[in-house]
Amino acid sequence: MDLHQYTGIENEEFTPVNYSQIMGHVVRDLVYASDVPDVVVVERQRFRTMGNKNVFEHILRSNILESVLVATILARGRCHVESQSPQKMASVLRTRFAAQPARRTVAVAPPLRPDAVSQLYQFSLQDRRGRVAQKGRRRGRLAATRAVLPRL
């Protein structure tokens, strides 16, 4: 998702003010759009890739966006934020979904503008052979996430 295009902020300069405006739009339009979640789980991003001793600029930007996201959500004070390591998130997702007979998939098209964000998500539940067991639609911007991830 191109955050500059999504938020309408044309200034692509790497500044804290610019990034805080972008995350303000994202939190307002995506996280708190319809329902206020009880818990927001944020997977911490790694600083180094595959043991590399260098830290790349795009990784620093991603980590800054993550920090601003958490700070913006905490400033609203209406939900609890859980920051988890990538290893723990992978472990939780593997153990939660490995024992379930149905695999859930969600297809969400990236929105172009905040005012054009679709409130309708397509989802389908598939069994292990890939046959569609159930098709449906859910309303709400967080419904797709809630359909895929159980409460942690």
Summarize this structure briefly.
This protein is of the alpha+beta class and about 150 residues long. The chain has helices spanning about 5, 15-30, 55-75, 85-100, 145-150; strands at about 40-45, 80-85, 105, 120-125, 130-140. It has one domain.
Shape: globular
Number of domains: 1
Span from first to last CA?
26 Å
Number of strands: 5
Rg over CA atoms: 17 Å
The parts where pLDDT drops under 50 for at least 5 residues are 103-152
In which range does the helix fraction lie? 25-40%
Organism: Ogataea haglerorum
Pfam family, one: Ydc2-catalyt
GO molecular function, one term: DNA endonuclease activity
Protein name: Mitochondrial resolvase Ydc2 catalytic domain-containing protein
Structure, described:
39% of the residues lie in helices and 20% in strands. The two termini are 26 Å apart. It is built from five helices and five strands; from the N terminus they run ααβαβαβββα. It has one domain. It has a three-stranded antiparallel sheet with strand order 3-4-5. The chain has a two-stranded parallel ribbon with strand order 1-2. By secondary structure, the chain is an alpha+beta fold.
